[in-house]
Every structure is written in structure tokens, then in C-alpha cells.
Amino acid sequence: xxxxxxxxxxxxxxxxxxxxxxxxxxxxxxxxxxxxxxxxxxxxxxxxxxxxxxxxxxxxxxxxxxxxxxxxxxxxxxxxxxxxxxxxxxxxxxxxxxxxxxxxxxxxxxxxxxxxxxxxxxxx
Length: 124
Hints:
- The chain is an alpha+beta fold.
- Helices cover 40% and strands 34% of the residues.
- The chain has one domain (2-122).
- Residues 1-7 have low confidence and may be disordered.
């Protein structure tokens, strides 16, 4: 398993499956659990004698244009994982702010959530 770290988000790439060479891409959470966020399929082009890598998300939608450069796919998945984490954090903060508590308590909860996430990220 190959693991890459891009600032805050860690992603891992599985070894290719023996049947069809599919690589699973997972996001590693702060509690070290993993969540599959996509797959990479190699397509062999015998005319050009090259391999094109196609990336899909968990819904089966193509994420990025096929490319022959696997390192480009790694970079794109790192960015994709970071963006999804940022969106998730913003949604959590919004839900926390909308709880029916006083403004002071709401701001304190958001601040504590940010501090907790920063501490977790520093541990990597």
C-alpha cells in the first residue's frame, strides 16, 4: 500500500488487484479508519503501446480525464480528497452553528472543533 500526504489529508493506494489491475484509493481518517473514495482502472492501448489510467469516484463517475501519468492521478486524488474534507468540515461547522443554543456556545463549539481538527492533523 502506498500512502501519500498532502498537507492535511492522507490517501492510500492499494496494490493492483490480480484480476483486472484495479487500484483502490482510500482516504485515511484521523482515527486511522479508511474510506474508499475512488478507483483507478488501467486501459492498455496496443496501438500506441501505452497505458491510460481512468479514475472514478465511488458513484462510478469519471473524476479526471484519462492520462498516461500515474503520478498526475495521485496528485488529482490528493486534491479531490482535500476538497471533500474541506467541504465536510464546512458542513459540520454549519450544522454546529445552527444548533439551537446561544451564539456564544455555538462559536465556542466551532472553535473547539477547529482546534480538535488541527491537533489531529498535527499528529500525522
